[in-house]
Amino acid sequence: MAEHPAGTDDEAYADGPVAALRRIAFLLERGREDTYKVKAYRGAVATLLTMDDDEVARAVDEGTLTDLPGIGSSTAAVVADAVRGVRPERLARLEAEHAGPLATGGQELRALLRGDLHSHSDWSDGGSPIEEMAFTAIELGHEYQVLTDHSPRLKVARGLSAERLARQLDVVDAVNDHLGGPAGGFTLLKGIEVDILDDGSLDQTDAMLARLDVRVASVHSKLAMDGDAMTRRMVAAVGQRWTNVLGHCTGRLVTGGRGTRKESQFDARAVFEACAEHDVAVEINSRPERRDPPTRLLELARDIGCLFSIDSDAHAPGQLDFLDHGAERAEAAGIDPERIVTTWPRERLLAWAGAKA
Question: How many angstroms separate the CA atoms of 323 and 137, rounded?
Fold first, then answer.
């Protein structure tokens, strides 16, 4: 794991304005700052990437940066400082506020994590392009990252139809080709966060699920349904041939801008016994507002003998570092790292995920 995932503050401005803007956006996302702030910096990056260094330097000298689309006074100040080799004040302040460890424990386990099985791009409800998510995963030291945009039923999150998912798989291939494939030390894996439907079936065609490397199955609707019905629904989903990971099992929210939400009611022992039987990993969702499963259920799954997957559920590049939170919880629960599939090398992970297919 890289200690400074997107470059230190000195490296960021020394490497030019794009690196400085990316580092600022990463730190804002990591610190869970407002989305509109992040968009300003990522938008400025998009503008600068269409320009060569001389054009940017000329705009700085002429004071015309803010005439460019997507560049306002705050981002222009960062660009001007970086072009002149000066540490941007905004960057220095964010390094002090957000660059430290996100959790007080779990560092040893965090260092063992090789990747992340749950992340979103702007193809569904994420905030950044696929390639930016991949680049940041590389900067974090990941060997693999699974792209798991939503399935069709989740329209509010722009879930992917079979046709859109097929197009996305071609993009993933192109990104991997650009990055050099496994020989380059990193692979973007093909995945999905597939909705668990009311009867426990999965919200995507078998043909498309068969083309994926990893499938995270999650409940997103009717979270307050009767406990017996929810148990049947989840046990059926865990038994589906394609299910590899049971995502954020209770659906709870404990804090954050979306408010709070109670846990779904179900027979956790029955669900986790099904996970153990079918070799499905229980996700330790690292988002601070989820902390799912709750500690008592995490310990129950541990005692039953389940596998686990520590995942970020990132919807922005900086949130990929949320793995710190999941590692802290898993270590506190005394979970053997060997039972955490995200500590496994890529080939072992793929062999496990493909074994049910």
Answer: 11
